[in-house]
Structure formats: C-alpha cells, structure tokens
Amino acid sequence: KVYVCSGNNINSCNISQFFKFIPTQVNPEYTPIGSTCSWEPTNEQSSENEKSFETNRSKLTILSQRILGKGEFGIVCEGILFDHGGFFTNDSTGGGGVGGGGRNGNNSVRVAVKQLHNSSKQIDKQRFMLEARFMSTFDSNFLVKLIGVCTLQEPILVIMEYMENGDLKNYLQKKLQQYRLRQDMGSMPSYEDTVRMAIQIADGMYYLHSKKVIHRDLAARNCMVSHDLTVKIGDFGLTRNTYEKDYYRITDQALLPIRWMSPEVVRTMVFTTHSDVWSYGVVLWEIMTYGEQPYVGKTEMEVKHLLSNYVRLKRPIYYNHLTWEIAKKCWDKNPKNRPNFPSIIDTLLSHIGNNGTQFMNMSFYHQMKAQYQPE
Ligand code: ADP
Hints:
Layout: E1 2-6, E2 9-13, H1 15-20, E3 31-32, H2 43-53, E4 60-71, E5 74-82, E6 108-115, H3 125-136, E7 146-150, E8 157-161, H4 168-182, H5 191-210, E9 213-214, E10 223-225, E11 231-233, E12 248-249, E13 255-256, H6 263-268, H7 273-288, H8 300-308, H9 321-330, H10 341-352, H11 357-362, H12 364-372
Parallel strand pairs: 3-9
Antiparallel strand pairs: 1-2, 4-5, 5-6, 6-8, 7-8, 10-11, 12-13
Helix pairs in contact: 5-7, 5-10, 7-9
C-alpha cells in the first residue's frame, strides 16, 4: 500500500491504483515518487529498457530461510545473483560478492530480493517497470542500488543491493541494546560515526532532489546500513511501510508517517523538498536517540496537535551540539528558512575535518562542487 493525497483526502491504494491516482497537490516542479517521472522514454525505448532491466530468474537464487525483513508488499530475503552483467559483476568485496560460493565463482553477488507476492497481480507492470527503471538509473553512493526486476512470472521480484546491517532504526536500537547488556561503550556509534551517517543521508537526499524527486517518507527505518557501516537511503519509491506503528492510520488502511511529517504537510498534504528537510531533522533526532520513536507515548492525534502548535521534539539526553543545532534549523516554522541539503553537508563537513575526505570522493556534493568551481 502507498498513501496518496487527492483534494483533502488521504487514501491508501495499491500500486496500480496509485499510478492512475496521481496526487493533485504535489508540487508540479517535482516528480512525485510512484507517479509519472521526468524520465519518460518513448514506447520503443521503454520496451528496450524493460528488456535489459528484466533479470533472468534462473540467474537468481533466493535464500528463503534468510529473511531480512517483511514489508507490506512481501518478504525481503537474501539472494545470490549469478552472471549479472551490470553493476556488480565480479564484485567480491565484503558484503557484495559471494566469491567461490556460486555457480560461477566470483561472478556472483549477494543481493536483497523483495518478493511482491501479495499485491503483484494488481501491479500495473508497465508503469512499475518504468518507475523501477528510472530508479535504477540513479547513481549515488548513498542510495541503495536497484539492480533489476523479474516481472515475467509471479511473484514479481525486486533485486536490490544487499545491505548487511539492515535498516538504520533497527541497527541503532541493536547497538543500544548491546550497550545495555554488556556496558560496552565501544559498540556504540561514536560522535564521528553519527556525523558521517548524517552526511551520507544528506548526500543521498541532495542527489534525489537534484533528480527532482521528493522522498516524502524519509525516516531511519527507510535508511539501510551496509557491511562497512555506510548509510544509504533504501526505500525511495516502489514500496514502503514496515513499521506500522510509525504511521498514522486514518482509516483501516490509510497510513501516514505523521511523526516525520512537517506541520505544513500535516495541514495541506503538499510535500516539498523543504518537508523532506523537516523529516531529515527527525532522522537526526532518531540517530541521537538510538532509534527511539519520535513523540513516544503520544497518540497520533496528540502529535498532530503538537505539530499544529509548532511544538518540537525534545532535545535528546545524549546529543551532540552540532547535530542538534542542524535538527532545530530543519524544523523552522517557515519551510523556506530550513537549510537545504548542500548547506547541511557544508556545516557537517566543516566539523569533521580530515575525516570528511573519504566521504568527499564518494559524494554527489563533491561532484557538484567540482563542476561549479571556477577554474
Ligand atoms: P516494504 O517497502 O515492502 O515495506 P522494506 O523495503 O521496508 O519493505 O523492507 C522491509 C525490511 O527488509 C527492512 O526494514 C529491512 O530490514 C529489510 N531490507 C529491505 N531492503 C533491504 C536491503 N536492500 N538489504 C538488506 N535488508 C533490507
């Protein structure tokens, strides 16, 4: 299920309905995820791209016992992709390749496979492919790579880059639990780790915004953590919605991530880059609290009321000054006064000195800077 707005109503629907049901109030300058995208191929290009993006099911082994998580659209399992001619060929680096374990030695890669079994019959395949293909063209080190899809048989499969440490919320909660059990401070993410995570998420968001894509559901549960603790934005499109209690259920079915939504979105249902920045501030808060639920103990109606009175999240007990100051700026009442992602990255980088060098080379931020630097 995805949640969409139309007029004053918020509804949830399946993907095929969603594609017909393009939100009417979304900023027309931007591409709402799940509806038309700025990348609109001709029919001919579209079928060509679909062919090349369609992955041969026989090259995929799904490790059904190794369930990574469950979402509304089905299970996410670990898998191994063989002979994949694209993105990960011969990748035998940690967390990526599964060298030696597959039919073709190193020419295999560990992947995450989402099986869309429940709702697959209702999916408008052509639009689904178009959307998936659009996402697969994204080239950012801080977005989980969409590798391919298998749509010719049921269940439809979505093949993604494997993120060994799962979602960020779960990861942070586990770290806190480990600390509580063993009193081992070493297992906790350090100050620099948290700043690095914040920078990586900001860079992924900067990239999405540059592609005119508004995320609309940025939250720690939708960020994924790799084997080397790189954080990437994972759920930026096709399906979402794992942590039911994080969503505001207006009817039996409609779900909204109200605890991450800005006051103006709650009021008007118009999502913008500025509302994504608000959600990013909430993600910073989630990082500082090791995955606590925002406004914990409050009902959705109470949260709504707080938001309409511009009451902010409380300062976490363990916080760092830099991250907290940025979070507060992201929650400015006036959306236009909120910082944008490049300026957030600027601020964060200026505080981590040389430790930012590695990030710089991998970032979209760096690419953009290099492009616009005077000779
Ligand atoms: P849905 O969008 O259908 O709700 P999600 O994409 O949220 O499903 O996936 C559910 C869970 O599966 C996530 O919370 C995460 O723990 C796990 N997961 C999803 N994608 C990956 C991935 N690429 N690598 C590792 N684990 C993943």
